[in-house]
Amino acid sequence: LQSYSLHVYPVPFTRRHLHLCTPAVSHRISGDHRPPPAAATPSLSCDGAARRRSDLRLPDVLRLLAPTRTHHQALPIRRRRRGCGRVPGPVLPTSAPHGGPWWRRRRGPERRAQRAGRRRPRPRRCRGASSALPRVFRLGTEEQVPYRMAVHPRGDGVLCAFPNGCRLVRWESPEGDNPHSLVLRSDQEALVKLNDVGLQLAVSFSGEGSILATGGEDGHLRVFKWPGMETVIEEPDAETSVKDLSFSSDEMFLVVNRSSGPSRVWDLKSSEAVANLPREQGEIFGFCRFSTKSDNSQILFVTAMQGDYGKIISWNTTSWTRIGSKKVTRDAISAFSVSPDGTLLAIGTIEGSISVLGSRDMRVVLTVKKAHLGIVTTLAFSQDSRALLSTSFDSTARVTSTESPKSDGISLWSMVLAIILGILVYYYMQHKENF
């Protein structure tokens, strides 16, 4: 038996919430050790109120563990610095009773405290160490598997795509002093037009939340005004399926990627297709995202696989011509995101690795090999673009700092070089007659 649920967690230092869809019952109960179905892949999104915050402060490393692990139970044991407690995760005994093997005996302050008969000193907490987050609320979905999620930017709720259609889950904050108190309830009447439309592989709200777009496995594209659900665009296509879609920041255009054929650009005001973005030989389009540059102009990024390489293609949003492309990875790209300030791009691969690139030259800024034990399923930047949130097939979520380390003051090597240079100058001045 398999049941699923929607979990909500608070993020430390903010009132932001994380929404994780994970299996509530493990395959291991029945002795089935095969990988879970694709439906069990966790999806993640953040509430709209937090997207407008510019004071987001996240620790450099924050690891959010799903409440139930169906697979990959054994995670690597993380090292700890001297005097610091072990961070949450799979825990091994830090010491052994006296008389055990030498590598498991108490040493250091613990051993001295034991000999003196004093209470063992409490380990102090490391700065930036992660902590287990309390679950705010859990909404069971029984046997309905949530495949995709989209959070309304203005806080109208969370749209979940199930195999037979879509459902809207609204949240309410009860009165009280607890800022993380939250109650979820399913709204059966909000999405009547999407109740029995089948599986939707792509769901998204526009930046202001006034438009909703969905793309089905059956190739049917639907675009509605929100919350009235008046139809703006409807395009059936039984020969393809919708892979991804993206709104421009000004809500003028919608780009749709399908499993075959070119990407299509729709004008949301006239409800007509204005451009088709052709593929080169051997290219298979994947994800599409708009990005706003410093001069408020927009650029479109599209990921593609060509042979054994994953690449990112940039397009001009005025002439809809290809500006450039660059091969960025040898693994298949499974997730893609653009930072809110438009300066960074992030890709996740099927091998669990994460890469952050500059949007101008597409040079790699940061790479985290094997950041997850499974396929990276979702990527999202914080509002200030200083942190990258990722989720994976292994039911984990991770926050990675995207800031490059900066040095405060003069570095040690610069000081050493200056001292050596001073000694050479002094030696030359004292013995210049001999030269």
**Given this structure, which CATH class is correct?**
Mainly Beta
Give the number of DSSP strands. 28
Strand order of the largest sheet: 3-2-1-5
How many individual helices? 3
Largest sheet: 4 strands, antiparallel
Shape: globular
Determine the strand fraction and express it as a percent band. Answer: 35-45%
- Mean of pLDDT: 76
Examine the secondary-structure arrangement and name the CATH architecture: 7 Propeller
**End-to-end distance:** 89 Å
The CATH superfamily title = YVTN repeat-like/Quinoprotein amine dehydrogenase
GO cellular component, one term: endoplasmic reticulum membrane
Subcellular location: Endoplasmic reticulum membrane
InterPro entries: Sec12-like, WD40/YVTN_repeat-like_dom_sf, WD40_repeat_dom_sf, WD40_rpt
GO molecular function: guanyl-nucleotide exchange factor activity
Put the structure in a nutshell.
With 435 residues, the protein is mainly β.
Task: Describe this protein's structure.
There is one protein chain. This protein is mostly beta strands. The chain has a single domain, classed as YVTN repeat-like/Quinoprotein amine dehydrogenase (Methylamine Dehydrogenase, Chain H), CATH 2.130.10. Helix content is 7%, strand content 39%. It contains three helices and 28 strands. The strands form seven sheets. Strands 3-2-1-5 form a four-stranded antiparallel sheet. A hairpin with a 2-residue loop joins β7 and β8 (165-172). The radius of gyration is 26 Å and the shape is globular. The chain starts with a strand and ends in a 5-residue tail after the last helix. Residues 103-127 have a biased composition (Basic residues). One of its GO terms (biological process) is protein transport.
